[in-house]
Amino acid sequence: MVRLYIQIASSTDPDWSPRRTATAEEVQASAKKILHPYLIEWERVEWYSVYPIGQGISDKYTIDHRVFLGGDACHTHSPKAGQGMNTAFLDALNLAWKIHAVEAGFADRAILTTYESERKDVAETLLSFDNKYAKLFSQRPPAAKEVQAASEQTNAQVEDNEFVKTFKESCEFTSGYGVAYKPNALNWSPAHAAKSSLINPQGSKLRTGRIMINADVTRVVDANVVHLEQEVPLNGSFRIYVFAGVPAVTSRALEDFALRLGNKRSFYSSYLRPDIDSVSHHEKHNPHSLFFTICTVFAAQRSQIEIARDVPSLLARYRDHIYADDRWDRRVPDARAAAHAKMGFDQERGGVVVVRPDGYVGIVTSLVEGSGTVDALNEYFGAFCTNKLGEKMAQL
Ligand SMILES: Cc1cc2nc3c(=O)[nH]c(=O)nc-3n(C[C@H](O)[C@H](O)[C@H](O)COP(=O)(O)OP(=O)(O)OC[C@H]3O[C@@H](n4cnc5c(N)ncnc54)[C@H](O)[C@@H]3O)c2cc1C
């Protein structure tokens, strides 16, 4: 199937309304003219529509955080950018997990306010990119001699070309990796209520409010090489990635982490499943809580990892989410544990990343012996969860 976009000339006539008057035959005639001296014929037209290009954005995405707008209902742009569907999906994803978290009694209603602030900001960035991009598209097409000259250009000259420059600069944004949510209760920053000194450890390359860095690892139970960031489905859960470093170095820290997660007032144990005693043995992602899935990644070869020996039982229950960081990666060719290195973690001592249910990094902490790591996460979740969290609270 082939999709053609044919621009219909505009007019100053107030009665001009191509949506009413334009026909598929006229558009086909235009296509034939454009492609001449080549020929184009149609066996059949599957779908045809007239689409006025317009940019628009709603002032508000919500009424009282009870009615929400998303997708084309609150932002539109030219089809040149090709981002409408992506943006609509991501609006829905951003909103869906927040509604789930609030309705299920996990998070305060206040997190719903982050939907508009996060997604409207993205739509505004999209519109300004689209504006620039559509203008470049609409410029006069290059003459044959300019095309010839362009093909003889050096790399430096190509980089200078405004269209190429804009296209390259925008790749991060158009691929989705450029989305950057600003600090709020979900995206840690120094202004966040969580103040532990373990947060945002030195060297971390992860940025809160941005997608987690991609990394390939080996799943321990079946030796499959997997994309770590795709391992937990969109199940409404926060993903806790424990980069566990070298087992001989971190065994105590890992034990302490699991022990503190098991404390009654921890962010984790405060939200256990009501049906926890009857959860199927085959449940991979949410055996204990509907709000968390835990992944443990060791900086070791798969053959060296023994789950029963190296992984505390609470974490070992997520046996399908235990990985060996033993894949070579060209971006960190000298690293012994590439995923640890890419995240910016110490390859022996590791660290912990909390990723929001929609894939954006919420907070990064060190992995340490004692209660510090879970304390830091209690502070983070305490900023938007419904229950009072942490040991200190329990003593009050
Ligand atoms: C020609 C064209 C090409 C495009 N190309 C791309 C592209 O390459 N890449 C890209 O990412 N995006 C592209 N888009 C944009 C993309 O299709 C839209 O941005 C996306 O579909 C918006 O999704 P949405 O769910 O917000 O709205 P829609 O997909 O429009 O869904 C709204 C739904 O609501 C229904 N509805 C409306 N009123 C009512 C009512 N009163 N009661 C019940 N139901 C109702 C409608 O029938 C429709 O099914 C293109 C759009 C067009 C028109």
From TrEMBL:
Protein name per Swiss-Prot or TrEMBL: Phenol 2-monooxygenase
Name the Gene3D superfamilies on file: 3.40.30.20, D-Amino Acid Oxidase, subunit A, domain 2, FAD/NAD(P)-binding domain
Whose protein is this, by species? Answer: Daldinia eschscholtzii
Annotated coiled-coil positions are: none
Protein family per UniProt: Belongs to the PheA/TfdB FAD monooxygenase family.
Q: Where is the FAD-binding domain?
A: 4-129
Pathway annotation from the record: Secondary metabolite biosynthesis
Recorded hits in Pfam families, A to Z, give: FAD_binding_3, Phe_hydrox_dim
Going by the UniProt record, its keywords in alphabetical order are: FAD, Flavoprotein, Oxidoreductase
Task: List, for all copies, the residue spans of the domain called Phenol hydroxylase-like C-terminal dimerisation.
Answer: 179-388
Q: Which InterPro entries match?
A: FAD-bd (IPR002938), FAD/NAD-bd_sf (IPR036188), Phe_hydrox_C_dim_dom (IPR012941), PHOX_C_sf (IPR038220), RIFMO-like (IPR050641), Thioredoxin-like_sf (IPR036249)
What is a single molecular function from GO for this protein? FAD binding
